[in-house]
């Protein structure tokens, strides 16, 4: 919903879009339990849940949903510029989601390709939006929404004048898709 329906809903019916995000906020305690059940921290929203927001399998494999929610939160903020909402609803969710991705990212050894000495990070063992390919490493979609989640949370913190995780920006920039090289 957050990826395919939310952008249009937010544009045409801002009040309904806000309600969708409030649904997620109302289930943030369950999202924290879901993360904890999977030995993670922060907020992890399930692909499918009961009315309580609890998942039957902890975070589950389709963790990109958590990143999709962060992108929707940011879209709402960009459309409304409602700083009261950002303070009360958006920031707590963005902070929890960024905390989840920062803990979930795995640092890879330093790379020096083309003079690039930045740290690189992976997100291992997830199911991408293509749910017929379970348990992949570095899914393009998941890397993308995780990176955006961390970046959006960092920007929200700056807007609100609050402190963020010390490595959120580094991780956001280090979640890169590695494509196989041609051997020709």
Brief rundown of the structure:
The chain is mainly α. Helix content is about 55%, strand content about 0%.
What do you see in this structure?
- This protein is mostly helical.
- The protein is built from seven helices and two strands.
- The protein has helices spanning 6-12, 14-26, 28-37, 64-80, 83-104, 140-160, 168-174, and strands at residues 106-107, 121-122.
- Strands 1-2 form a two-stranded antiparallel ribbon.
- The chain is globular.
- Residues 180-184 have low confidence and may be disordered.
Please specify the SSE layout and strand pairing.
Blueprint: H1 6-12, H2 14-26, H3 28-37, H4 64-80, H5 83-104, E1 106-107, E2 121-122, H6 140-160, H7 168-174
Antiparallel strand pairs: 1-2
Helix pairs in contact: 1-2, 1-4, 2-4, 2-5, 4-5, 4-6, 5-6, 6-7
Main sheet record: 2 strands, antiparallel
Q: Point out poorly predicted stretches.
A: 180-184
In percent, how helical is the residue content? Answer: 40-55%
Distance between the termini: 43 Å
Total E-strand runs? 2
- Residue share in β-strands: under 5%
- Helix and strand element order: HHHHHEEHH
Number of helices: 7
Features:
7 helices, globular, 184 residues
């Amino acid at each position: 919903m957050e990826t395919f329906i939310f952008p249009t809903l937010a544009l045409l019916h801002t009040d309904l879009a806000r309600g969708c995000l409030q649904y997620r906020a109302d289930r943030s305690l369950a999202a924290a339990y879901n993360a904890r059940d999977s030995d993670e921290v922060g907020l992890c929203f399930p692909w499918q849940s009961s009315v309580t927001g609890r998942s039957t399998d902890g975070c589950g494999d389709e963790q990109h949903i958590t990143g999709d929610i962060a992108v929707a939160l940011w879209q709402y903020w960009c459309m409304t510029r409602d700083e009261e909402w950002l303070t009360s609803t958006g920031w707590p969710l963005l902070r929890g989601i960024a905390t989840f991705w920062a803990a979930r990212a795995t640092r890879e050894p330093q790379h020096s390709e083309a003079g690039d000495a930045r740290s690189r990070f992976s997100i291992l063992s997830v199911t991408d939006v293509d749910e017929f390919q379970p348990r992949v490493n570095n899914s393009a979609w998941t890397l993308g929404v995780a990176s955006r989640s961390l970046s959006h949370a960092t920007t929200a913190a700056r807007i609100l004048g609050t402190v963020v995780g010390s490595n959120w920006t580094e991780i956001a920039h280090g979640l890169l898709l590695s494509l196989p090289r041609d051997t020709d």
